[in-house]
Amino acid sequence: MAALEAPLRAGEPIAGEPTAGTPISEAEAIERLRQTQDSSQQYYGAWWLGRMRSQHPETVPLLQLALRQRKPRDPGAGVEENAVARNAARALGKLAPAAHAAIPDLLDTLDDDDDGLREAAARALGELKAEAAVPPLCRRLASGPAGAGALRPGTPRLQEPCEAMLEALGDIGVASTEVLAVVEPFVGHERPLIRSAAARTLLQLSGEARWAEVLLELLDHPQLQVRRAALMDLGGAGWRPALGAIERTLAENSLKLIALRGLVEQGQGEPGEEALLACMDALL
Amino acid sequence: MSTTALIEALQRADSAAGLLAATRELACCGDPNAAPALVEVLGFNNPGAAVAAVDGLIQLGPEAVPALLQLDPQNYGARAWAVRALAGIGDVRGLDLLEDALGTDVAASVRRAAAKGLGQLQLEALGGDERTLVQERCLTALLAATGDGEWVVRYAVAVGLEALGLQLRPHQPALHRQAHGGLEALTEPTREEVLVVRLRANVALTKLEG
């Protein structure tokens, strides 16, 4: 499931809180990112430039600088530079085609020790459809559910940010035998969200209905969070035969509408646009 | 069971599942006396029960409107559901609330329901001048919302403008042209970046021209 566009995540600084709700100009956002005294201001500036799809010529170079500003994680140090780097990666993902210049920087961060940064970089590389990211992503996932997908002792996190990396491979769209062989074992992962991400990617890459079946089954999962992820993944893959099942899923209309938008925009064939739009109209 | 007994069962419900079941029962009864109790459920922060209550209120139609309009405006969660119910009922007494919701509500889900509702108010019973006035207000609110920041709201605006435009076509050529113009803006790739919104606005234009 794609990350929501929220500026804040658990464990990250509440950047520029007194001003975060106030509209700022593009010039102001660029200045906040450029200065290096206050990293919470940089954090907010990076988020703003991505959210507003800034086309300013300085935006991408400054975000590249912010990515390089990362340091080993030091949770005791208050606002960390890595938080700025993570937001810079997220912003770059939204800034194609200008951000293609930053692909080498994002590839570098795929080897960073900070898995949160690897996650943000993987998602950005997926959004930028960076084919150069396929070999490193495959390399990091090659050890499969028992390796890359194993729980890191003492934390709820996996060794690799598997969900983001699997989805990036689907978004990039290189459907080689090697990629499919790396992704397929994750359909057996113990976590339903990882199974969902893997099935989505395989569906995007191969178009084979058996992977859609995995997602359709997850639409009936007892946990709402899993049903939501399966909705987003069917939408991301644009699997139009899922229309009826999406309509019946026990989840918010807002998420069904996003999924159906995916079916319209990413999908093809039957059911056609007329039926899809009629279903969306009824969910408003 | 009588409506009174159903309402009492609802008030006795002591679990989320029990509340949902009791709301569903009451929502099916079709008795306007159930409306205040159903409106009360909208404020309980139980989405399943609220969906059932909204369905029941829409079934009751105009008779549910007074109870909906008595809702405390500070009860934020309940207001969102009330907007959906009023949008579904299409009663012109909901106009103020729908206008306000589309223009100012922070939740996109509420704005999208209001946009759809502003296109489907039932205006047959109104006199000519009053009907035109209401149609102008709906049109103004919808045209302003073609610039909403959320794609799903702009999508709902296309749906609302289509329904309103079809109503306007026979007798209000000037207003019809404005609705048409708003939809044209939503089909323009330089102005509207989201494909599904452009597609929906194109469908609406085809219907208005058909």
In short:
Chain A is mainly alpha-helical and 284 residues long.
Structure report:
The complex is a heterodimer of chains A (284) and B (210). Chain A has three domains: 1-128, Leucine-rich Repeat Variant; 130-206; 221-284, no CATH class. Helix content of chain A is 58%, strand content 0%. Chain A has helices at 17-20, 26-34, 39-51, 59-68, 81-93, 103-109, 115-127, 134-141, 162-172, 177-183, 192-206, 209-218, 224-237, 243-248, 253-266, 273-283. In chain A, helix 4 packs antiparallel against helix 5 (81-93). With 210 residues, chain B is mainly α. Chain B has two domains: 1-89, Leucine-rich Repeat Variant; 90-210. In chain B, helix 4 packs parallel to helix 6 (76-89), helix 9 (128-144) runs antiparallel to helix 10 and helix 10 (151-168) runs antiparallel to helix 11 (173-186). The model of chain B has no long low-confidence stretch (mean pLDDT 94). Chains A and B meet through helix 15 and helix 16 of A and helix 8, helix 10 and helix 12 of B.
List the helices and strands and how they pair.
The complex is a heterodimer of chains A (284) and B (210).
Chain A: H1 17-20, H2 26-34, H3 39-51, H4 59-68, H5 81-93, H6 103-109, H7 115-127, H8 134-141, H9 162-172, H10 177-183, H11 192-206, H12 209-218, H13 224-237, H14 243-248, H15 253-266, H16 273-283
Helix pairs in contact in A: 2-3, 3-5, 4-5, 5-7, 6-7, 7-9, 8-9, 9-11, 11-12, 11-13, 12-13, 13-15, 15-16
Chain B: H1 3-12, H2 16-27, H3 35-41, H4 47-60, H5 65-69, H6 76-89, H7 95-104, H8 108-119, H9 128-144, H10 151-168, H11 173-186, H12 195-209
Question: In percent, how much strand structure appears in the residues of chain B?
Answer: under 5%
Oligomer: heterodimer
For the terminal residues of chain B, how far apart are their CA atoms?
A: 50 Å
Stretches with pLDDT under 50, minimum 5 residues of chain A: 1-20
Assign an overall shape of chain A.
globular
**Overall number of strands of chain B:** 0
Question: Number of folding domains of chain A?
Answer: 3
Helix count, DSSP H or I runs of 4 or more residues of chain B: 12
CATH architecture of the largest domain in chain A: Alpha Horseshoe
